[in-house]
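Need the bound structure for D-ribose, inputs here:
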Amino acid sequence: MVSKIFLSSDHAGFELKEKVKNYFIKNFIEFEDLGCTSLKPVDYPDYAKILSKKLSYENESKGILFCGTGIGISMSANRFPHIRAALCTSVEMASKSRKHNDANVLALGGRILEDKLALEIVKEFLYTDFEAGRHSLRVDKI
Ligand code: RB5
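Answer from helper R.:
Posting the output first, comments after.
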């Protein structure tokens, strides 16, 4: 489990972000919402950048990014060297993104995922540890 979770989305990911926030509030999980704050259209690279910058000095923390598909916002975040953002559409992908890739950011598609599955993916991401060992060398090569 991580100390703090940063959340950021564009307008297309806003509603799913709100649902994940509700889950965090109910379960006393500490988070910080970095925006956006409504359904008004914004540009996903801007929100990927806000979260990525935050993680550059909050390096024990994790982030969750949301856009319509999760594609644009994960591509944007992965331009930052310290970010390993994993776009996940299944619990298995979330599990492997942590165990094998030590992903520090989860990217979700608000227009792709059912809410229930999205929450399962979030939980798997947050509660799964990096296996290190042979995976460390590969992650270092990224
Ligand atoms: C916004 O319409 C949409 O393009 C964006 O949220 C995302 O899906 C891009 O990858």
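Comments: The radius of gyration is 14 Å. The first strand starts at residue 5 and ends at 9.
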